[in-house]
Every structure is written in C-alpha cells, then in structure tokens.
Amino acid sequence: MSYTISNNLVCTLLLTALATSSVAAESAKPARDPIARQATAADINRAFELLEQEVLAEELAAKKSTHQTQSTRMYSAESSENAGAETELVAQHMERIRNLIASNWIGQSNTRTTTPVIIHMRLAPNGRVITSAISQSSGDRPFDYSVVQAVEKTERFQDLQQLPASVFERNFRDLNLLLRHEDLSH
CA-based, 20 to 30 A from 43: which of 62, 96, 114, 150? Predict the structure, then answer.
C-alpha cells in the first residue's frame, strides 16, 4: 500500500515538475533551449532517486517494525512461560523445605499459636543453611525457638542444588520463610 501511494506521489511530482519546468523554460528562454531541458531532466532524475530512496526506507522501516513486533511477542510469550515455570519450581521447592523443617520439628502439642513466625535463612547453593534467625516473631517464644531448632537440625536442603543458579540466587539465597503451627504439625 505504501509503495502504491509512493508511485502515485512520484507521478504527481513528475507531472508537476514537467509543467513547472516547461512554463519556466518558456518564460525565461526561447522554447528550444537545450540548457533548460538538461536542468529539467536532472531535476526529474534527482526527484526519482529521492522518492525511490524514500520508498525503500519506508519498506525497510515497515519490515523492521513487523519483525520487532513479532520478536517482542515471542520474547514476551517465552518470558511468561519461563516465569510460570520458575514460579511453579519455586513453589515445589518451598513446599519441600517446609516438609523437611516439619519432619525435624519437635513442638509442644499444647502450643496453638495462630500467628506465623518468619525465619530468615541464608543458604549456600548446595542447600546448606549458613545462618538462620527469626525475622518476625510469632509472639510465642517456645514456638519460635522450636522452629529455629528444626531449621538447625535440617542443616541442608539438598534439592536446592539441582536448581539453575539464577533461580537459586533470585529465590533461595536469602530466604524469608513464613511458617505456621499448622504447617509444622502434620
């Protein structure tokens, strides 16, 4: 479509150039002046070259825009798929971490706190717990202490070493894990 419009534009410009040059040539010089005709032919050739470059530039820009749009759509779809897969992978590993801590938890059956504890863990890529500490208390000191004891007893979350390094760094290097009494008492 752009090419057809440009061809129509070329024809219009050429007719205008011819009409203008013949009027100018007739008024300035005798009718058959070869210098006036050469200038007109050079102007027409230059107009053709400029319009041809403009048409090519428009076509190239349209192709680039289409390619960029398609690339953006493909990248966006891949990113969404990757983000969805990573979210699922993280959720699976978080559940495994909770289960391992729960398997090592020795809690008092009379402790029924409803407020969760948030424990901060710094983990190594092989899943080893480097440090752990309460970052937000449940308000029940014995429960908080029992969670710290369960993490220390777990020592290592071996499944984490199977994760891609980038996933581990984004999601597990510095982990704040929220735990409720019901998460730990099976």
Answer: 62
